Amino acid sequence: MSKMVKAGLTFFVLLLIAQPLFAEIRLPAIVSSNMVLQRNTTVRLWGWAEVNEKITIETSWSRDKIETWAEDNGQWSVSVETTGSKSPQNISIRSNQSDISLDNILFGEVWLCSGQSNMELPLRGYRGEPVFGSNMAVAKSNNPNLRLFTVERAGSKTKLDEIGKHISWQQASPESVSGFSAVAYFFGQQLQEILDVPVGLIHSSCGASSIEAWMSEEALVGLKKVDLTDVDISRNANHIPSALFNAMINPLVPYTIKGVLWYQGEGNMTEPEMYKKLFPAMVKDWRDRWGLGNFPFYFTQIAPFIYGGNEAFQSVQNSAFFREAQLQCLDLIPDSGIAITIDIGDDYCIHPPEKKEVADRLLFNALNQTYGYTSVDHASPIFVSRSIKNGGIVLRFKNAETGLYSFEGLKGFEIAGADKVFYPATAKIINSNEVFVKSDEITEPVAVRYAWRNWTVGTLYDINLLPASSFRTDMWDDATMKKMEGN
C-alpha cells in the first residue's frame, strides 16, 4: 500500500472520529408518542444531540417555548410543567438537524411495576398456570386512557442510559394487555376507573430474580460484594448483583412516576434477616436517584407455597420467617404498604392465580395512602400484644378497630409453654377484635404462632377481608414443634 493511500485512509478515519456523537436529536425509548406524563407536576424530558446543539421544545398546553443546549457529553434535559387536562397533548422537539413530534400524550398517574415472576406473570397466564378472570379482563380491556410500557429482560455490567428491547407505549386493548403483567394491569385498570384520569403503567420485571440484581452497586456497598469482572452477563442476569438495575431500572430515571409496585421475594426466601437490610436500601436508593422524595412504595408479601417440604419450623427453609421479615419492612421503609397473600397461595404452584386479589390489595394501599380515600381499608390486622387469661393467650391486633372475621373458624394456631415446644391449638375471635388461643396440652402458655409453615391457608381477617399475616409472639431461635398424630 502506498504512503499516499495510507495517508488518505488515516485522514478518513480521523474524519469519522471527529464527527459529532449525536448528529440528530435522540430520545430515550420511554419518551415517545402515546406516553403518559405524571399530571399536575414537573416532569423531565431528556435525550441526546450534537454537543452544544440548541434544542427548542414546544408543548400544546403552554405558549412558552423551552430552549436548552446539549452538554459536552451530548446529553440534554429540561423540566416541563404538566396540568390536569384529560385531553391528548403533543410535544415538538426541534434542532437544526431534527424535527420530532410526539403525539397523543396524556397527563395522568404513572406507576412503575417491578419484581420477579409473580409480577411478570402475564394476564394470559403461563402454560398450565392460569390467572383467574383473565379472559373477561382481556375481553373488556379496550381503554385509550390506560397506557402500557414494557421493559423486556436484560442485564448489564454497567449502568445503561437507554433501554434495550421493549414494547413502547400503547393503549390497553385485548392485543396489548394479554401479555402484560396481570397484577399491574388489574391495578391500573381499576385505578383509572376509580380516579377517572389516565393511568400509565411501566412494567420492568424478571422471573426468578433476587433483590440484589435490582440494586445499584452503590446501594449494595457494605451489604453484598459486587465484582462483575469475570461474570458472564449473558447467563442468569437475574441473580447477578446490579445487573437488572443497570439495564432495566437506571434507563428509566428520571421519568417522573407517582409510585412503585413491587412483587418479589421468593428469590431471597432463605435470607430473611439480610432482606430486611437489602430491601430498605434498595427503596432508598431508587428514591434518591429519582429525586422525587419518598414516593409511595407498595409491595406484596410472598404467598404460602410448599417449597419442597412443609416440615420446617424453626429453619429459614420455613418461608414464614421471610413473610415476617417483609412485614417488618413496613416499619423500615417510610411511605410503604403491604399486600398480604396468606389466604391465596397455591401449595404446588409458586404463581398463585388470584392476581386480581393481589392487585386489589395493592390498590387499597394506593387509594388510602396516596389518593386520600381514607374510607377505603388498606391495612391488614397486625399482632401487637398478648396476655395470659383463663389458661390461654389473648392476642390483640392493630388495624382491627371494626373487628376480626373468619369464614369457617380459625385454624393454623399453635401454642407453647416455657419449654418452647409448640402444640396445635384452638382459637376463636372474642370481643370482636381479639383472638383467644388455648390447648389442653399446655397449662401455662407463653407464646403463640399462627400460620407458621411454608404451606398454610390463612383464616384470620378483618371485616373488610384483609388477611392477617403469619406471625409469632416469641423471638425464640430454638423452638420445636410437637409431632401429633395426623399432623
UniProtKB/TrEMBL annotation:
The keyword Hydrolase applies. The keyword Hydrolase applies. Keywords: Hydrolase. InterPro entries: SASA, SGNH_hydro_sf, SIAE. Transmembrane segments: none annotated. It comes from the Bacteria. Residues 109-333 form the Sialate O-acetylesterase domain. PANTHER family: SIALATE O-ACETYLESTERASE. This is Sialate O-acetylesterase. It comes from Splendidivirga corallicola.
